[in-house]
Amino acid sequence: MAKYLMTVQGIANDIVDDDDETYGFMAGMRWRPQDERNQHPGNARVMEHVVTLSHVYAFWTKWNKGYNESPRGYVNDPNLLKRLEAAIRHYCNLQLVAPDDPAINGGYPEYKDRPGVPSLAATTFGMVAQADTYYALRSRGVAEASRVKLRVSLVRAANWFMNQSASHWNTPIYAFNQVAAGLVGVQRTLQVLNPGTLSWTQADIDERTAFLCANGQAPAGFLHEPYGADFGYNFTVTMPDLAWLHRETGHSSIVPLVQRYVEFMRHAVIREPDTGTLSHVPALHVRNVVRNLDRDPADLQDRGALAKHFLEHVPDIALFFPTLEEKNAARKSFKENPSAVTELDPTKISTSPRTWMYGLLAPDGPPQATRAQVEANLPLLTNDRFTKIEDGSKNDQYLFVRRPSYYAVSVFGDWIETYRSTRQLGTLWNPAMGTVLVGTNDPESPEGWETLGPLSTFSTRQSSSTSQFFDNRTSAAGQINVAAVRSKTGLFSQRTQSVAGLPDYVTGWGYWDQGLRFTFRTQMAGSCTQRLPLLLKNGDTITFSDGTVFVPGNADLEVQATSFVLARGGKRVLFSYGPTARRTLIKRNPSPPPVADIADGTIHRVGVLFETQIDVNIVFLNDVASEPVQAEAHRRGSSEVSLRATVYPASPKAVAELRISGTGVSNTLVLSASGFQVFERTLSQVPAATTALLVAAHASDGSLTGSTTIEIR
Which of 17, 67, 553, 675 could anchor a disulfide with 77, C-beta 3.0 to 4.6 Å? Predict the structure, then answer.
């Protein structure tokens, strides 16, 4: 509360007292975004700091004493009360009154370009601020006229919100956080007003809570913001509200909802193997820009603090909090800092009235050992074979594929232009190398896995598509449903097609054990660009097929290449798009700053130019290349086997052909190029008794250059 206490004078003195039209307006450019659309006298959200002023006016503490005591505080300060009453008058006068129109009557406006239009957020968050302001003034027995205004306002706003025919109850619920705030507001209103004067009861609030939980959560587990996932709103805004509701009501729908949400998010957080850094998968998030998981222990930044209430019920939620030890250290540092406490920086996040309201109620946990155990139990660390595919609520799908060599998280389906989330591959991670590919959801640094059509006609990253899944390496295999995809622990494939039709694009994904295969085709003529958001860390090197080497910090580069290899800490991953050399560009993105920093690295854009079709094979290479080839094989049915082989550059002799053999199997692949090459083949009539294959590499003179024996999975 220290910085809030130092800011009270500034907030109070910002209240307009020299203009009849705007008398009482909090004109200090605080709390809400500092732009013309938000900062105007008709924005009810700007006025929510009445609750901050009323709190320091009403409640005596060791750090906030009476205005005539020493050291001076604000309790019973008559000058503060005058300012507060002026603000309450202005605030309540903003309420829209239209007795014959329940869609308007009782709502509050927000944006300058929407005068007279009720804002769900302004009304619901405002109810919470007004109810606590009413409680504070009543506790001192002061400002009867202001309390009357607040009482009338609260009843109107609650009636507006609880009207079940209102658009905010349309299903699926559009913005979970705003409706959850409304439930907190009506619950608090019920607590501070005489229930006998209200047209709804606790049973009505409980019914609406159940309705929100049933209709505001996507099947995947995230909460709609809007319709898509968003950590900023799901966690730092909504979870504290749900925690408060559960504290006050014990509603049975809340904990299961939180459990499903946390389970989804446990799959959407990536841990770097060398540093332990945790990062989000930005492609999932629709409203707030995300990068690394921020768990700032400073109380003013710990906006989700009250959600620690759920630690007892949902232990894995500890993943998202600063630890008890970190909190204690931050508080100790604050107490020992000899500098004077200054007022809050007037930005939206630092002056939020909700931060102190919920922070005062929040538990301190979790202990460091508890959180460390939760981190160690992240799904990508405890299981090297699973497929999780979940539906959103608006034709969107979330795919999590873990195989021994990688973890891939992707989003597919409908894309809405106003979203910051993207489509196709979001993040690719390796258990030894960490993150190697990751997109952003930052419009100032727009990076991601995408294919741009000729003249940028379309982007697979920012367009809608439909998906089909298949029980083998191509769509020639049998199609499988989502339930069958979830059971896959080995090879399967995916076909996505633009909703605009085949002339735009069709893509294919193959999910092998050793990496991914991506295929893109379009019927449009002209140059296309395949972009790969490559994450580079200090010490990384990229070696292109022509021998050119790139390291972080180098100038932008252009080469003619068929592939490149990223090396990190003795591990390597191949990106092959041959056998024909293509114009390839790499640049640190963007230039000039801001830069796309995440997961201890910086995203570099790799662009490969092509026409009509491209096949990108990603293969995590063997640690020690003792043989010129590595391979894997997967059985489908009783007689069909899918084979993927990666041929290394010539040493000492160039590989001219691969001979695949086994019981009842004899097949030869002829190579037509040098350098790294990746091949896929379907072998038919492979006896069920055949459990392994020998893949032998031969030079053009027929001599054996090396071989590998692989089990058929």
Answer: 67
Q: For residue 120, give the H/E element and its range.
A: helix 120-140
> Which residues are CB-contacts of 550 (< 8 A; sequence separation ≥ 6)?
541, 542, 544, 557, 586
The answer to whether 555 and 588 are in contact (CB under 8 A) is no
CA angle 115, 116, 121 (to 5 degrees): 85
Residues whose CB is less than 8 angstroms from the CB of residue 592 and which lie 6 or more positions away in sequence, other chains included: none
Helix (H) or strand (E) holding 680: strand 677-683
Q: What are phi and psi of 243, to 5 degrees?
A: -65, -45
**221's tokens:** 């587990």
The residue whose two tokens read 């959103």 is 392
3-state SS, 514-575, equals: CEEEEEEECCCCCEEEEEEEEEECCCCEEEECCCCEECCCCCCEEEEECEEEEEECCEEEEE
Contact status, residue 344 vs residue 350, Cβ threshold 8 Å: yes
* Residue 617 C-alpha from the chain's centroid: 27
Helix (H) or strand (E) holding 692: strand 692-698
Q: 480 - beta bridge partners?
A: 469
Helices and strands (DSSP H and E) totals, the chain: 15, 30
| Residue whose C-alpha is closest to residue 627's, from 709, 516, 547 | 709
The amino acid that residue 567 corresponds to is: A
| Cα 469–chain centre separation | 25
**Where are any strands of DSSP class E within 312-449?**
386-391, 396-403, 406-413, 424-430, 434-438
The alpha carbons of the chain give a radius of gyration, in whole angstroms, of: 30
Q: What tokens were used for 544?
A: 């292109």
Sequence-distant (6+) residues with CB within 8 A of 398 are 220, 264, 284, 388, 389, 390, 391, 392, 409, 410, 411
Distance between CA 271 and CA 279 in Å, rounded?
Answer: 7
Q: How many CB atoms lie within 10 A of CB 138?
A: 17
Q: Burial level of 474, CB count in 10 A (0-12/13-18/19+)?
A: middle
Q: What is the pTM of this model?
A: 0.96
Residue 713 tokens, joined: 């999975």
- Is residue 53 a contact partner of residue 370, using CB atoms and an 8 Å limit? no
- What is the distance between the alpha carbons of residues 697 and 645, in angstroms, rounded to a whole number? 11
295-348 residue pLDDT tens: 999 999 999 999 999 999 999 999 999 999 999 999 999 999 999 999 998 776
Q: What parts of the chain have a pLDDT lower than 50?
A: none
Other Cβ atoms within 10 Å of 20 Cβ, number = 6
CA-wise closest residue to 697 among 666, 660, 664: 660
CB 74 within 8 A of CB 67: yes
Q: Are 212 and 275 in contact (CB under 8 A)?
A: no
Show Cβ contacts of residue 493 under 8 Å, excluding neighbours closer than 6 positions: 469, 470, 472, 473, 474, 475, 477, 508, 509, 510, 511
Cβ–Cβ under 8 Å, residues 268 and 290: no
Q: With helix as H, strand as E and coil as C, how does 488-512 read?
A: CCCCEEEEEEECCCCCCCEEEEEEC
CA dist 131 and 136 (Å) reads 9
For residues 122 and 457, give the distance between their C-alpha atoms in angstroms, rounded to a whole number: 39
Residue 229 and residue 409: Cα distance in Å, rounded?
14
Write out pLDDT tens, residues 489-520.
Answer: 999 999 999 999 878 999 999 999 999 999 99
Task: Encode burial over 378-413: b for 16+ CB neighbours within 10 A, e otherwise.
Answer: bebeeeeebbbbbebbbebbbbbbbbebbbbbbbbb
